[in-house]
Amino acid sequence: MTTPPTPFSDPASPFTVPHPDTQMRAYRLMHTAAELARLYEENKAVTARYVHATARGHEAVQLAAAFHLRPTDYAAPYYRDDALLLGLGLQPYELMLQLLAKRDDPFSGGRTYYGHPSLRREGFPIIPHQSSATGMQAIPATGMAHGIKYLESQGLLKTADQRPVVLCSIGDGAMTEGEVSEALQMAVLHQLPVIFLVQDNDWGISATGQEMRAMNAYEFAAGFKGLHRLKIDGADFAVSYAGLAAAFAHARDTRGPVLVHATCPLLAHHTSGVRREKYRGDNITQHATNDPLPRLHRQLLDMGLATEAELDHLAAQARTTVENDYQRALQAADPDPATFADHEFAPPTITEEAGERSPAGAEKVTMVDAALHAVDDILREFPEALFYGQDVGGALGGVFREAALLAQKYGAQRVFNTPIQEAYIVGSTAGMAAVGAKAIVEIQFADYIWPGLNQLVEELSKSCYLSNGQFPVQSLIRVPVGAYGGGGPYHSGSVESTLLNIRGIKVVYPSNAADMKGLLRAAFLDPNPVVLLEHKGLYWSKVPGTEDARTPEPATGYVLPLGQAAIAQPADPEQTRRGATCVVVTYGMGVYWAKTASQQFPGRVEILDLRTLNPLDYAAVERAVRQHSKVLVLTEEPLLNSFAESLAGRIQRTCFQHLDAPVFTLGAANLPAVPLNVALEKQMLPNAEKVAKTLGELLGW
C-alpha cells in the first residue's frame, strides 16, 4: 500500500486512513452519484421538469461526511448533497421518487425539490426539514446542537452516551449570509456540538468566488473565537475521510463547534435550470482535472486495493442500479390530488378548555403577571422547556419584567439572554423542536421581528407541510405589540396582518389575564409554530378603560384551546330581538375601545373577542353577524389591506343575506409608522371616541 495522500491542515490530529472496504464502498457510491447526474442530464426533458442539482464533483467529501454520521446524529444537508444521502444508505430509487415528485417520495410525498430530505428512519441520522433558501439551514442546525447540549445538561437525552453531533452542510457562497454569522456566533458562544461542512466550488450560480467574497470560509471563520477550523481537499476521498474523522472526533469529545472548509470542483450544472455552458467556458475543463472519481480510481489501483476489472464491475453495478431504479421511478404513482392540503398543521394537543379559570378566592392579576406565571408553571412542569430572547435572562427578566426571576429560579441554561439576533431566536426553535427541546422565545418588540421573518416563513411555517407531516415545529414565539402613550415608531407596531399571510403558523392575541394564561399554555403544548401577540397597553391595565384586562388568576394548568372566540360583552336579548343591536368583531385593545364606546349605546353592542386569529373561529363570527345583522370589524392596525378588511370581505360574502347594513371597518390611518408625539399618535390610532362615532353611524343605518 502506498503512502496516503497529503493530510488536511490539522497537524495536531492523526491521519485516519479509511478501511479498504470503506474505500471500495466510496468508489461504488461515487459512481452511483455520477450515474445519477449522467442519467438526469441525458433525460433532462423528463428529469428537469422539476429543478434539481447533483453532487457531481462534490462526491468525495459528501461520502466521507456520511460515513462518519451515526444514527443518533442529526444532519442538515444542502440541495447538492445527493451523494451524502447515498452514503447514509438511501437508494437511488428513493431519491428519484423525490426528483419526479412521486407519491412515495420518502421525504415529502412529492411536495418539494430533489435533494431536500426530511427523514425519520430507524438506523439513520435524523434529517429535519429545511428550506431551499441559501444558508438558512445554519440557524436551525445550530438550534439542533443547542437543544442537544441543553438536553444533555439536564440528563434528558437518551442517546447522551453516543455524544450526538449535528452536521450542517453548506456551500461557500452561502457563508456570506448574515444568518450564517448569527449561527456561528451562537455556536461559539455556547460551544455547541455542530460541524459546518463548507463545500467550496468557487461558484455561486454564475458569480465567481472572487466576485462574491473577500475571503473564503476558512479565513472568515478565523474571526469566531472558539471555532475549530480544518481545511481539506474535498475532491480526495482519503483526505476528506481523515479530515471529517478529526472534525467529528473534536465535536464529540469537546462538544464544541468545527468548521471544515473543503475545496471541490463543480462538474455539473449549478442546477438543472442554470446551464453551465452559458457562463462557465474553459472553467469546466479546468475543474474536470480535479474530478474526485478518477482520483479515487487511481489511488485504489496504486494502493493495490482493487484491480481494473473489479473497479469496472463496481462501475457497471452502479449504472445498472441507477438505470433500473429510474425505470421503476417513472412508473411509480403520483400523489393523490385529494391529499394536497394534508399536513398544514399537526393535530392540536389541546382541544377543550381544562382547569379552573376562576378559582375560589383567586386574586385579580395583570396580564403580564399571568404570562409570567404561565411560563413559570411550564418550566417547572416540563424539564425539556427553555426560554430565551433579548434581556429575558439575568437580573432584568425582560424589558417588561415578563420573565422576572425566572433565570435565577431555573438557571442560565434554561432561561438566558441572546445577542440581538432575531433570526436566530426564531429559527433556532426549529432545531430545538427536531431534537425534542421545547423553546419559548421572545422578540423584544414587534417592530424588530422582521429579521426573523425569513426563518419564520421558510424554516418554521413550511416544515410540517413539506416534510409530509414528519417534522412539525413546536415553537412558541412571544411578541409584545401595540401602541400606547408615545412608544414611537419602533416600539408601537402591530404586525398581525403580515403574520397572517404566512401559512403554517398560528397567531394568538389574548386581551385579558385569564385568556393569556390559558392560551399561552395551549400555545406551548401545540405541536405547531405559534406566535403569541401581547399588547403592551394591556400588560398592567394602566390605560384608562382597560381595567377588565385584570382577571382572577386561573389555577395552575388552566388551558384554553386555540381557535375559540369569546363574547366579551353580550348585547341585551330584548334589544337583539327588536333588531336594534350590532356586533363588534375585534381583539386585543379593540375589546376595550369597544367596551368604552358601547356605554353610549346601552345593551345594543355585543363584542366578540376573537382571541385567536389563526385558526380563526369563523363559525362564531357568522353566528354573531347573523344574530345582529350589523357588524363592525375593529383593529389597531392600519386598515388598508389588513386582516380586518379581509375578514370584512369574507363576512360580506358569506353573510350577505343576513346583513342590514354594509360591514363597517375601523382601524389606524394608513401610515408607515406610529409617530412619537402623543397627539399625533392619538390622531392616527382608533380610540373609544372614534369607535363610538362609528357605532352611532352603524346602528343608525
UniProtKB/TrEMBL annotation:
Its EC number is 1.2.4.4. GO terms for biological process: branched-chain amino acid catabolic process; response to nutrient. CDD domains: TPP_E1_PDC_ADC_BCADC, TPP_PYR_E1-PDHc-beta_like. InterPro entries: DH_E1 (IPR001017), THDP-binding (IPR029061), Transketo_C/PFOR_II (IPR009014), Transketolase-like_Pyr-bd (IPR005475), Transketolase_C (IPR033248). SUPFAM superfamilies: Thiamin diphosphate-binding fold (THDP-binding), TK C-terminal domain-like. Keywords: Oxidoreductase, Thiamine pyrophosphate. Residues 365-541 form the Transketolase-like pyrimidine-binding domain. Its cofactor is thiamine diphosphate. This is 3-methyl-2-oxobutanoate dehydrogenase (2-methylpropanoyl-transferring).
